[in-house]
Amino acid sequence: MKAFPVPHDPQSPPDAPPDLRQVVIRHMLFGFGCVFVTLGAIGMVVPMMPGTIFLILAAWCFARSSPRFEAWLLNHRYLGPSVRRWQETGAIPLFAKVFALASFVGSWFGTRYLGAPVYVLWGLAILFVVLSIYMVTRPNE
């Protein structure tokens, strides 16, 4: 993954400072990356909270905002292996698929048991079906 591209305006000299909008976007992506790393690290130790997906999102944000932090994440002893595996193969381990699908079902029934409104149940059902289709279509590791 390459850093967030900074196109040059053909009418400005090549050493002109980057556009303010691009600087703001880069800083926002870096901020999101930090939040995603935090959530991913929490998800690595808290049961039923996904960690890897947040780390993948963090790597994507860092690739476009800070190559140094992307390298840190990819080379991290505990957080990096799952992200590198995803970038190399795009595969999801069968155990992770089964666990995620069971979590979707459990979360939906738990939400129903707690008396969530019907529109929330439908929204969750649609989200879980879309996520399930995506996961099932990924190759097994």
Automatic annotation (TrEMBL):
GO terms for cellular component: plasma membrane. It comes from Azorhizobium oxalatiphilum. Keywords: Membrane, Transmembrane, Transmembrane helix. PANTHER family: INNER MEMBRANE PROTEIN YBAN. This is DUF454 domain-containing protein. InterPro entries: DUF454. The chain crosses the membrane at residues 29-62, 91-110, 116-136. The keyword Transmembrane applies. The lineage of its organism: Bacteria, Pseudomonadati, Pseudomonadota, Alphaproteobacteria, Hyphomicrobiales.
